[in-house]
Amino acid sequence: MKCPGQDSRFWGKEAIFDARCPECGAMVEFFKDEPSRRCPKCGHKFVNPRMDFGCAAYCKYADQCLGELPPELLAQREHLLKDRVAIEAKKHYGRNFFAINQAIRTAKFAEELLRIEPGDPAVVLMASHLHLVPSDPTERNKEPTPEESAEVAARILKNLSARDELVNEVYELIRNRESNDELSSNHKIFHDALLLARLEATLKKDPGASYDESAFLTESAKNLARNLKETYGG
Description:
Blueprint: E1 16-20, E2 27-31, E3 36-38, E4 45-47, H1 62-66, H2 71-93, H3 97-114, H4 121-130, H5 146-159, H6 164-175, H7 185-205, H8 219-233
Helix pairs in contact: 2-4, 3-4, 3-7, 4-6, 4-7, 5-6, 7-8
């Protein structure tokens, strides 16, 4: 069965409309189910401004329904998926509030680092939210191994119809979360976000606690660590 939102039998008079090209200002005719069109005047390709791509974040038939997704839409799709991952992560953490707080802290620092450091926000933030998900939610006092969390994270992402490449990247980040051998930009950001989250939790309990600045892999994280020390340690 075709999605009613994309089935022309359910369309009204608003199904065909004109949109202004953001590059040259020419009017471009769109059908409501077209993900993108190329401007006949200047050749610029842009996303349908009236199309609701929210369903593409989780629908396993999105590619078939919407056709080949343009890069702009793929980025939007994974941004929406990231929010769904955060919700699913909390479900899996259950009442393990320590793990929930650490995941939230890690994602917060990852976002700060991503404003400065080059990386893939979808991959890093999903790994941040999922890096402590347990294989057994009832064992709140036992921290899962990186391998265990990586397996659970991969299952969650597959259930949300994430593309295989994204699933694999998140899986590898979580599985190697304690490693300093992998030097990809995503790994550096994720690694440093984890350390910053732990440092903040430590300083809240013990403002005088020290830390090893050389453990951080990016200068941005070192600066954030100094700011944390000043904020909590005085």
